[in-house]
Specification:
With about 150 residues, the protein is mostly helical. Helix content is about 85%, strand content about 0%. Keywords: Signal.
C-alpha cells in the first residue's frame, strides 16, 4: 500500500509540475483531475477499497455543487445591474435558497461519505481539497511571474 501511495504522490507532483509549465490560457483537465485524485487519495490515506467507492460519490457531489455555485455566481454578477427593490428581494430569496440547497447537499454528502471513509478522513477532506487548489494557484502565480 505504501508503494501505491508513493506512486500516487509522484503522479500528483509530476502532473502539477506539468500543469504549471503550460500556457496560462490552457491546461489539461484530465491531468489536473488525475493530480487531484492522487493528492486527495494520498493525503486522506485512502485504501484501495475506500477509493473505489469514494471517488464516484465525491465526483457526483462536486458536479452538483459546481452547478449550484454557478447559479449563485450568476445571481451575484447580476447584482451590479440596475434593479428595483422587488428585484433585489427576489435575488436575496434566490441566493438564500441556493445556499440552503448547498448546505442540504453537503449534509447528504457527509452522511453518505462517512459510510465509505472514516469521520476523521471526512473532516480532513475539505481542507485537503482546498490545499490542492491553493498549490495549483501558487504554482500558476509562480509561473506567471517567471514569464
Amino acid at each position: 500500500m505504501k508503494k501505491l501511495t508513493l506512486i500516487f504522490l509522484l503522479i500528483a507532483i509530476s502532473n502539477i509540475n506539468l500543469l504549471a509549465q503550460r500556457p496560462s490560457s490552457s491546461y489539461d483537465k484530465e491531468k489536473l483531475e488525475a493530480a487531484r485524485v492522487a493528492f486527495i487519495t494520498n493525503r486522506l490515506d485512502l485504501k484501495a477499497e475506500q477509493a473505489e467507492k469514494f471517488w464516484p460519490v465525491f465526483n457526483q457531489f462536486n458536479e452538483e455543487r459546481g452547478k449550484l455555485m454557478h447559479q449563485l455566481s450568476a445571481i451575484n454578477r447580476s447584482s451590479s445591474e440596475e434593479m428595483t427593490e422587488a428585484k433585489a428581494r427576489e435575488m436575496i430569496a434566490q441566493r438564500m435558497s441556493l445556499q440552503q440547497d448547498l448546505l442540504d447537499m453537503e449534509k447528504l454528502f457527509m452522511d453518505e461519505i462517512v459510510k465509505i471513509i472514516s469521520p476523521i478522513q471526512a473532516v480532513k477532506l475539505g481542507g485537503v481539497n482546498r490545499e490542492f487548489t491553493r498549490q495549483v494557484y501558487r504554482m500558476q502565480r509562480g509561473r506567471d511571474k517567471n514569464d
